[in-house]
Amino acid sequence: MVELVWLIPALPLIGFVVLLLAGKLLGEPRAGWIATTAAGASFLVTLMVFVGLLGRDSHSGERSYELILFEWLPSGSLQVEAGFLVDPLSVTMALFVTGVGALIHLYSVGYMHGDPKYSKFFLYLNLFLFSMLMLVFGNNLVVTFLGWEGVGACSYLLISFWHHRDSAATAGKKAFVTNRVGDWGFLVATFAIWSALGTVTYTEIASSPAMTAATGTAVSLLLFVAAAGKSAQLPLYVWLPDAMEGPTPVSAMVHAATMVTSGVYLLVRMNNVLTDDALIVIAVVGAATALFAALCAVAQHDIKKVLAYSTISQLGFMFLAIGSGAYVAAIFHVITHSFFKALLFLGSGSVIHGMGDEQDMRKMGALRLAMPITAATFIVGWLAIAGVPPFAGFWSKDEILLAAWEQKNIGPLLWVIGLITALLTAYYMSRQVILVFFGDQRWDEDAHPHESSWTMTIPLCVLAGAAIVGGAINLPLVKDWLVLEHFLEPIFNDPHHFSSGTITKVALAVISVCAAVAGISLAVLSWLTRQISTDRLEPDFLENAMYVDSTYARVVDGIGTSSFQGAADIDKRFVDGTVNTVGKLTMRLGRLIRPAQSGYIRNYAVGVALGALVIVAFLTWGLLL
Amino acid sequence: MGAVAVIELLASQSASSFPVLNAIILVPVLGALVVVLLPNSRPEMMRPVGAVFASIAAAMSLYVMAQFSSHDAGFQFESIQSWIPALGINWHVGIDGISLWLVVLTGLITPIVLLAVDPHHEPKSYTAWLLLLQAGSFGAFLALDLFLFFVMFEIVLVPMYMLIGGWGYEDRRYAATKFFIYTMAGSALMLVAIVSVATLSAGEQGITFDVVELAQRQALSTNTARLCFLAFALAFVIKVPIFPMHTWLPDAHTQAPTAGSVVLAAVMLKLGTYGLLRFGLYLFPEASVWSAPTLATLGVIGVIYGAIVATMQKDLKRLVAYSSVAHMGFIVLGIFAFTTQSLEGGILQMVNHGLSTGALFLLVGMLYERRKTRAIEELSGIQSAAPIFAGFFTIVMLSSIGVPGLNGFVGEFLVLIGSYETRRWWTIIAATGVILAALYLLWAYQRVFHGEPTATDEATPDLTLREGLTLAPFIAGIIFLGIYPKPLLDRIEPAVDGLIAHIENHSDYERPSPAAPVIVDHNQLSGDDH
Description:
Chain A is mostly helical. Chain A has helices spanning 7-26, 30-54, 88-111, 118-137, 141-159, 166-197, 202-207, 213-230, 239-242, 248-257, 262-269, 276-298, 303-323, 327-354, 372-386, 392-406, 411-437, 454-469, 483-488, 502-528, 540-543, 548-593, 601-624, and strands at residues 65-75, 78-86. Among the domains of chain A are: 275-364 and 374-542, no CATH class; 552-624, no CATH class. Chain A has a two-stranded antiparallel sheet with strand order 1-2. By secondary structure, chain B is mainly alpha-helical. Chain B has a domain at 290-509. Chain B has a two-stranded antiparallel ribbon with strand order 1-2. In chain B, helix 3 (43-67) packs antiparallel against helix 4. Classes of the chains: A mainly alpha, B mainly alpha. The interface between A and B is large, with 67 and 73 residues.
């Protein structure tokens, strides 16, 4: 059944084409249902492909199937095919991309109700899903880049969906341009790999001999630049908080559950070329991003901004895992995160929807009574992200912390940073839950918060279920229960193994649970029971995200704009000025010698006579010599 | 007398095969004559009649494309007639993988713009000039005789000068004069070089202006060849244009009527890059290799500099013009990297740039027709008023930015991946152009299409059916070439490989041997169930 892989991206593409041609005609809600059907069908086909893959022997390389559609860029020795690669990694990614994606499509049917561009929204969503699936299933770097850029373009279109708002338009552009910095890394990495290995196809790269250390590290770091752009790591994260300008389902799908994990996917896919030197850099940047973003999340007031910084922080965790060599842990966290973060975003969307587009948590409170389903599911998401066992997030986060602990060079330091981040995560998420759903009612009487329609609550319930039991795909309790780890094993030349003994593992797990409890307690004491003064818990420094973004903005607006303007001025004054000066000088020279053409025959006669004299003189002089 | 010559030219080979390339050049000329003879009282007939002739030429270019043998590295459909025997000058035309797609592009673009863009006044001379422009461009791409090429290369200046000067905008006279004199000045030295090459290569075999013959002889001393190359290069550098010889372009583009801008971008700029390939690399392989670092550097500067200056433009047409400088810079880098991928990518990029930038100029022209302005700051929120127009613009913009799946990517990607082999640091810097391209186009798009529309913006009408049909071939090409450029690449490759081999034979350049991928047995990997 794995041969059906082409259908997985084809279905949302068909949805896109149908909506492109007849979206306006179909209107609400039919356009939404068509898109949702396409996404759902894509999920079903992915399940079939998954089952087909499971039916194959897990050893002897049989769980790797390539489907070549046609030659895309054949040029000399470069052969780039439009082809798909079905293997455990791509199918794992596709399962949650289509699964969570379909749920978010369903949710949007209700959420986008009444929007004048209803059908266009679903058009973009389907195109996004198509691109994401090309990214995941591409059998070479260039097809992945097609998806990579496709999701970037869709992200641009979706962030600036309400384009009459300047902030939305600016955020969309910022996302695209910042991502392009990463794309530069992707492109140059591709060139270097082709130059060194003579191929861009994943299976061939995996079986190629290692590149030289310098090339390998350069390639690894370039790939990380690409990943840092797409997955919002320091210093390229700045576009993600602003991306919240898009409709909330977009934030859930594109900017939390799927697209932003593609950087993680890329590095895991290329695990065979990553060098140890580069891995340390990745681990350090990941850990730093995790801590930085968690600190920023602490002081946000916008319900979606908290989740945005939380996403950056969790992505940092994933890169920490990669940098520690624990690729399975990274993918594990990608999956559980996609469940609980999609849940949290959709829950926040339900809150915003119910509150009549209010996003400021200071104007919420006690909403559990008005929206019980949203509140209950949101609480599940909170427990999952906070790392409370047995919810999904606990298991994946714990594995990452263990991997960080075992990192060869600076393991304990990475672990401490990870632990502090975990504590902060539990704290800021608890703060959010308390501010939104508990405590005093801080909204006006005319806000009329209400529970959302079934198309919105069903996805919440499904995702909540996944966030509760999602950890089961890779339970470390018994070796045979590490389903994900065994499933993904074929994609690694050299699978990672944890070396710590059981006592260490249990001790680390207990400490991380303690951190979660401490974070939650701190939030309860300060925000619910108000036993700790909250006056200094939201410093401006953190609320403004340590002024990184505003500094960027100042540099871009200041030096950036003035140097660009300087170049434009040079072009006008100097480069073009020189051209015009040459023209003017020629004109002036012409004017200078024009009097010679006086029109009087006597003047010309003198000229002729003088000329004749000169020639005669010249000739005689020549003869004399 | 002219008519007799035409008949002779067409009939000369009728015994063996129809000289289709001659016909391609002459049909638009004939069309121009017919249009001129049409009665002035029927202005509405001018453009349709002209379009018929332009379309016949287009159809013939498609016929050549269909009949073109993709395995042949040499010239096809060759036709040769003695012209000035005493000097060894012939009417020699032929087509290969390097010129094929430019000829097809020239063929298709002209009838479209002729039908699509209303000149508003004097349709007769407008139509005639456009047809002559098409003929001259065909001639320049097909000429295999230096003298013939020079004539064609210069002839195209006249109709473009007339189009800018006669149907352009407020500063049209300044722009037209600048365009004419600047490019003319460049080709003056080329004429000297042409004569020098022909006379100095004469030897015992006699004088010839034949490009193929001269390329084989390679009779010049190294220094003479370098000097001649520089004279040729100057003409082409101005035409492309390459930094710092580019400043005629923004003026010409901005002031030209829409049809002029489209043809200028899609066809005429390609004369420069085509010339570098055909008369630079082919005639002077050693000098090309010698000058490659400099020219590649100028190309890369163009990529970055063009994009930076584009960002700050206040006029939409100027912005697109500077984006051309950036895009053409990629092509120049590809040409002077001398690898199969970089050259193929460069040639593909010539076609792609023609489609994307041509469509951008059409779109900006349509916007001008509606609003009588090209100033970015006078427009806002157009997407709310004209969503379909905005959708077309978005596709073309994404193509120009180089988003994969659309045509802009395939050319740029091949140029860069090929150039990385021989010009690593140039490529790494040029690749930053992808960031800047997103910056200037998206920023302009945001200011023009996003935001709150004013009452005037609100009244901007959306795309008409006629305009949609005009843009449709461009969009189709943009998508098709993005997904399936193979038919083009297959036909370009033999010629490119032949050219690289020619350079290797006549200089110390050796193309890098590609790293060999480890062969993986797909059958074993994917199991046996196909």
